[in-house]
Amino acid sequence: MKSLIYLDWKRGLKMFVASATLSLSMVSTGSGEALAISTSQKVENTIETLQKSDQRWIQINLANQRLTAWEGGKPVYAIVISSGKRSTPTRIGSFKIQSKHKSTRMRGRNYDVPNVPYAMFYSGNYGIHGAYWHKRFGTPVSNGCVNLAPNHAKWLFNWASLGTPVVIQK
To answer: Average pLDDT over the chain, rounded to whole?
Structure first.
């Protein structure tokens, strides 16, 4: 029990330090003023860094409704997704897989869906998961999550691990 608590504390500290580092990313101008880097520039910087690594990571492009699984600079899997509709958009930014569930119930203001397959949450209730209730992939129809066909969600679920970076861009 003691070692589990220590590992949870250590993981939490690592996530806090990483979040603080991203939050404090600043650009210094010649006059000494600091300007915050735009979200899109942070995302581009993260992509550039990940492509130079050998790390597994997930890129989601909302403009073309595509998800690409990468190993460093090499794409290993690409699929069509359904992201959040205009009224319930998918969040943009850099995240990490925080939890994984082979099956879970998802509830929200206008939905209650049992047995959602291969769910991986990256920011609160925002996640990547299989969607058996529609076949409108390529169209933003979700409540903010990233929907995949169940067979693709299974592949991604087995490939990704906790902590895998998820980069979402317009």
So the answer is: 86
Residue 40 has pLDDT above 70, yes or no: yes
Question: In this structure, what token pair is assigned to residue 128?
Answer: 């990547």
Average pLDDT (88-92) is 97
Nearest to 41 by CA among 21, 30, 27, 57: 27
Output the CA angle 108-60-50, nearest 5 degrees: 130
Q: How many whole angstroms separate alpha carbon 67 and alpha carbon 81?
A: 6
Q: Which residues pair with 58 in a beta bridge?
A: 69, 166
The pLDDT value recorded for residue 25 is 40
Q: Are strands 99-108 and 26-28 parallel, antiparallel or unpaired?
A: unpaired
What's the rounded Cα separation, in Å, for the pair 142 and 162? Answer: 23
